[in-house]
Amino acid sequence: MIKDEEKQPSTPLQRQSMADYLSPLVRGIKPSGIRRFFDLVSTRKDVITLGVGEPDFVTPWHVREAAVYALEMGKTQYTSNAGMPELREAIGQYLNDQFAVPYNPADEILVTVGGSEAIDLALRAFIAPGDEILIPEPCYISYSPITALTGGKPVGIETFAKDEFKLKAESLQAVITPKSKVLILCYPSNPTGGTMTYEDWLPIAKLVEENDLIVISDEIYAELTYGSKHVSFAAMPGMKDRTILVSGFSKAFAMTGWRMGYACGHPDLIAAMLKIHQYTVMCAPIMAQYAALEALQHGLEEKDRMVEAYNQRRRLVVKGFREIGLDCHEPQGAFYAFPSIVSTGLSSEEFAQRLLDEANVAAVPGDVFGLGGEGHLRCSYATSVTNLTEALDRIGGFVHRLKQEG
Predict the structure, then answer these.
(1) Can you state the percent helix, strand and coil of the chain, rounding each to 5?
(2) How far is CA 72 from CA 16, 66, 292, 396, in A?
(3) pTM for the full predicted model
């Protein structure tokens, strides 16, 4: 016979706070170190920010006008999940013309909500719990958190200023295990400005093939190179089918807020990413797609002018840091300098915080970018020469005062 107290429903375990409802994977992720400094800047006056990686140029007028015209013509519907066919055609033509990588617009190109969505889709499509994802560092801060959210294990590969922050084959070989599945590449590099040549890529491609890896190649800064043309990893012999090429319009075309990106790769891999894309965002906004199409068809001259402006600023910034007494390797791509602040005796976090508090200059501490980032500062030169000159003056005065303290 069942006793009365045994008939009572059990009381559910009470959670102590709303945070207890969160996934442990989400709880384990730290907020963006870049955004933390950006938020600090937004509450202060007279701050020169070298922090957020965003062009200071406004999207060219004819690109904006294309979006306005699309609205006037009533283009407000969904597009194909993969993106407008004419945009995919233009992306394919552009990649073939610029980087000698041919893609079939019908099934090898997916238009995404920024390059960030493309990276997220690729990682979710490829990773099973326990897979190891190899990530050269310092690197863009999103790769490891997204990997963790999928149940994968991020494995950092340290790169060094003495090697111009290039990925070296021996460093990659040292971290490969039977669980290694995906290699994430970001060249030109955020945050270091490092690039890779054809000769640099050859031993990396050999290891990728020998160890049966898939590559996610984030080439959002491909157009922003100085002195030599970008070499896409997908263009290396035998690597096209193993590589998801990720890029977009944010950096080279000054279209960050439009959130327009794309992923290119083997039809089977793109189809898997498309399935996730269909169930999450459906498609990229149609007005932004028309703007991106205009940028590819008629915006290459403006792109080249912006790249030349970045090159002038790059030389100014590298020279300025060296004159201040901070070692700074010469970035060959992107729009970041990554000077060493080791000589000051401060950690990256301490230097960045004091620089903001005492000199009103915002930059990002290098440690937020992973292995090899500590002892450095990421400084974006995607701002005016006037701002850069003033920022260098302030940084120089700050470093001088630090030396006097010592």
Answers:
(1) 45, 15, 40
(2) 53, 10, 17, 51
(3) 0.91
